[in-house]
Amino acid sequence: MAAATPSPAANLGQVIEDLLPEILVAVRASLYRCSHRGDRDEIDDLCQEITILLMDDDFRRLRSFDHASSHKTWLTAVVRNHVINHLQRQKTMISLSDLTPATIRCPALQDRHLFAKELRDNVQEALTRLTPREARLFELCYLLGLSTVEIAEGMGIKPQSVRRRKHAVTKKLRQLLQH
After folding, report:
1. CATH code of the domain covering residue 134
2. Suppose 130 and one of 68, 75, 134, 160 were both cysteines; which one would form an S-S bond, judging by CB atoms 3.0 to 4.6 Å apart?
3. Is the distance from CB of 162 to CB of 151 less than 8 angstroms?
4. Cα separations (Å) of 138 from 30, 117, 158, 166, 170?
5. What is the pLDDT of residue 158?
6. pTM for the whole structure
7. Can you tell me the distance from the alpha carbon of 174 to that of 142, in angstroms, rounded to the nearest whole number?
8. Nearest-CA neighbor of 132 among 155, 158, 163, 161?
């Protein structure tokens, strides 16, 4: 009875088993080059992911090695690319104990809408307390965005009067909104 010849997959499996120490060294080196200190579990996980990556699709990546470079160079490139992709997928984690209450505090969206509505209502109320001439000046200046000269021509007053009245209207509104 003739001895059974090992299958190509068994040979590639042995190749991967032989490469495991080199994969481990390459993962550590890649993490070090990326200024990332991986813990033992993370390094083990990356080694397993790379091993599975090499075995995927009937050893497609391992079969892609074309001997144009040494297997160590090829493996280093595969590992480096995988580690970089892994690190880019990770999100920066911040410990909750490192956060200050000011950075955590965020008013609810509903509260912001209520504050905005209250402010709009207060401004509308304050605008009703302006004289018709002050309300017209406010509308021309702040709502329509006209220049001082354009407002002066439209209201039939001097530009200097527009500036003075604009300042007076702003001051009056500020006082009305504070109460």
Report:
1. 1.10.10.10
2. 134
3. yes
4. 64, 20, 16, 7, 8
5. 93
6. 0.41
7. 14
8. 155
- What is the distance between the alpha carbons of residues 120 and 140, in angstroms, rounded to a whole number? 19
Neighbours of 127 (CB within 10 A): 15
Q: Which of 176, 115, 166 has the alpha carbon at shortest distance from 143?
A: 166
Residue type, 106: C
| Structure token pair of residue 59 | 């050893």
pLDDT tens-place string over residues 13-62: 777 677 777 777 777 777 767 666 667 787 778 778 877 877 777 677 77
* Number of domain units in the chain: 2
Q: Which domain holds residue 170?
A: 109-178
Question: pLDDT tier at 99 (50, 70, 90 boundaries)?
Answer: confident
